[in-house]
Amino acid sequence: MMSTRSAAAVLVWLGTVVTILSRSHGDRNVYPSAGVLFVHVLEREYFKGEFPPYPKSGDASNDPITFNTNLMGYPDRPGWLRYIQRTPHSDGVLYGSPTAEHVGKATVIEITAYNRRTFETARHNLVINIMATEEFPLPYQAEFYIKNMNVEEMLASEVLGDFLGAVKNVWQPERLNAINITSALDRGGRVPLPINNLKEGVYVMVGADVPFSSCLREVESPHNQLRCSQEMEPVISCDKKFRAQFHIDWCKISLVDINKVVPIYITRPDPGTGILPEFGEYDPPSESLKARDFFADFLITLAVPSAVALVLFFILGYTMCCRREGVEKRNMQTPDIQLVHHSSIQKSSKELRSMSKNREISWPLSTLPVFNPVSGEVVPPIHPDNYETTSMPLMQTQTNLQNQITIPQQRPSAPQHIRHESCASSRMAAVCGGVVV
């Protein structure tokens, strides 16, 4: 019985070990050269065996897989190494250009693959052993800007080989290497609109061992420099050798001769040992210091603004109270005829208001309510239904109303001098025989 249990435990342990070994392959070693473009493709097909098969038999396994790359023991990659993967259904690419500083140092990159359908992971290690080359660095370097390519398209071996072949046909060097490839977005370029199959653009730097050809130097002519300043395409004789597959912006080409570059040495201060010099023990101030009285400063701080405010208050009060003209002074400076005219207008307006309040003429029938606003009862009509009103004028329908006053008849006109005297004796502006006085 015990032997059976031990055998089962051994089988479970062996199954676990086999599963772990199947999930972790051995480290893959690559040997790039310093100063030469390094490209490593993370193939999805290589990692599909790490995940369980597709549940439906007969269907192709096309799980979305993404990758995460970092330097072992660190959260990110080295500064010279870049990574790009456009979609989860495309392969990832590690690319960059190692320098001479990394020669002889093994760089271990941890590659973690994520299956976005099953959420399982698989991890591999990529060991990059950078080798030194005798031809590093190549003395003549040219950087081209290709407008109709994305970086992952340019990193394909076939496309990069076609471009190097076109450059070699124009330049005619003995040794020609791709040094670096950079996306235009990393140089501050803008993301293109998703129309007309626009591309991001890519910068490709190549190096050779011979001076630049006359075709490449045509962009430095004054005529082409003027066309570039006017945002026009320069006239390059060898552009037709690239135009079939690569659209090069010749205004952005960069030609560098390393032999003529003047090195700049920056002197840095000596960092020292990092230990402060010995200054002895800390000597705090003695306790015999005299206390300072701030009461006088406090009074001065409050007294000066208060005095200024008080002076301004008195000036404002004198101006508003003692310098007022007053009604009497205003009347003294106003002409008498103007005062009389103004007083007569005031008396007339008061008399008109008092007379309008004492009106006893009844309101027209059209303005009377048809029901009592307090009790809500319907007000009976003034006349019964059988009352004959067709032969009665409209203005005589109000003869039976209370508080009606009769309009006095117009008297015969008086002599002209009497009319003027009666109008002059009136206390208000009235109508005298149709003439306004």
Quick recap:
The protein has helices spanning 2-23, 44-48, 151-154, 157-171, 222-229, 240-243, 295-322, 326-333, 336-357, 416-424; strands at 28-30, 38-42, 65-71, 81-84, 92-96, 106-115, 121-129, 140-146, 176-183, 202-208, 254-257, 431-432, 435-436.
Secondary structure blueprint with pairings:
Blueprint: H1 2-23, E1 28-30, E2 38-42, H2 44-48, E3 65-71, E4 81-84, E5 92-96, E6 106-115, E7 121-129, E8 140-146, H3 151-154, H4 157-171, E9 176-183, E10 202-208, H5 222-229, H6 240-243, E11 254-257, H7 295-322, H8 326-333, H9 336-357, H10 416-424, E12 431-432, E13 435-436
Parallel strand pairs: 1-7
Antiparallel strand pairs: 2-5, 3-6, 4-5, 6-7, 8-10, 8-11, 9-10, 12-13
Key structural traits:
alpha+beta; four-stranded mixed β-sheet; four-stranded antiparallel β-sheet; 10 helices; 29% helix; disordered N terminus
